[in-house]
Structure formats: C-alpha cells, structure tokens
Please model this.
Amino acid sequence: MNGTKRNTAQLFDSKGHLFVLALDHAQGGVVPGLEKTGQLLDRLAGSALDGFILNIGLADAMATPRLLRKKLVLRSSFGGSQLATDYSTVHTNHVSPETALAVGADAVLMMAVVGGTDYRSLQDMAAAIDAYHRLSIPVIAEIIAADFTQTTSPDVQLHGARIAAELGADVIKAFWTDNFDKVIESCPAPVILAGGPKDKDIVLTAGQALKAGAKGFAFGRNIFQASKPEALIDELRGLLG
Model:
C-alpha cells in the first residue's frame, strides 16, 4: 500500500494543503455557471487552485498544456439525476480503476452515503476503495446523508467521516457543521472542507475550518457562481499560506 500512501501525500502541497474546485455536478444537468465547463477550466488554468473535480466525460479537458500541472480528481460515483421522481440514495461507482488511470486521475472521489439503508451504498464504496487501492489510486470520500437535508448535521459528518476513513478512504470531504473540530479529531484521515454553507461567509467559514484542523477546501458553486471567481480563489489561497 506504499504506492497509495505516496500518491495521497502528493495530492497535498508542501504545506500539507489541497484546494480543488468541484465541477462534478452532473446530477443537476446544466448548472448555472457550468454551461461551458471547458471554457471555465481554461479561464482558471492559471489560478491558485491545485486542481479540479470532474466527471469522466469532462476528464479529457485536463489533457491540455495549460492544465497539465493541475490535479485531476475524478468523480467515480453517481446517484441519478435531480429530474428523477425517486432520486436515489445509493451512489454506486461506475468508473473503473483502469479508466481512472487511463485518463491520468490523481485521485477519485466518491460519495459515502450514511443513514437510511446505507449498507448498499457503503458496501459498494468499501469494495470500490479496495479496487482503487490495488492500483495505488487515492480515494476521497464525500460525506452525505441519505436524507440530503440532514447532510450538515453534526452526527452525519462526525460518524460518516469516521466510517469512511475506517473503510479505507484516504481523504475525507466533509461539510461544515457545529463542532467541526470534533469531526476532524475523530477522523484518522485528513479532512478537507466541502462546499461551504450558502448562508455564511465562505472565507470566514474556511478560516474557521482551518483552525479546526482542516487540510484544505473542495468548493463548487460558492466559487464558480461568484461574480469574481479568481479574486475569491486568491483570497481562499491566502488562508492556506
């Protein structure tokens, strides 16, 4: 497993931080701000971001000279579209380890769904982690609730982060919640802050997360829907030192 440990360490910069922009919103179809994702990637190629989270259909956009030094975190799981009348609480993995290697992914990201009948989702996640680790591919697990409205509850993030780490996830993408320091203290894997709450100052929350022990950020709409994404990226990068 030394290869996985080495590759996980290389996700983080020399100060131990990781800052990626999440553009993996396929469940929403055409999301405002992501109408032309390729153009957005090109626009932010010279930004202070370490990399991007993308679905497999957009991964080839990273194979350009301007983006070769950016990390590619490949979203490997999917739970159906928001157009469905019975949106799935099971996010199964559909991207194979071989495909992840073929597109040059530095890591994969999958959902860890907790609550409800989560044995289906968590068993799929655990099996997928084992498969990726056989090829030394790091796995980032994002903690969400089967009842998505409960995703930012302290219990979901606290227990979900620990469960995902114990099932082998190398990095945890956790949402801000009360007692966020407890989430990090109880998790044996490094934690990066997900999303950022829509009703709070993202920079203030990011700073609080770092003080609690977070190792970076994986933000989406708060950045790509911002009026000045580059300026916000620079401000957040400044927090990382």
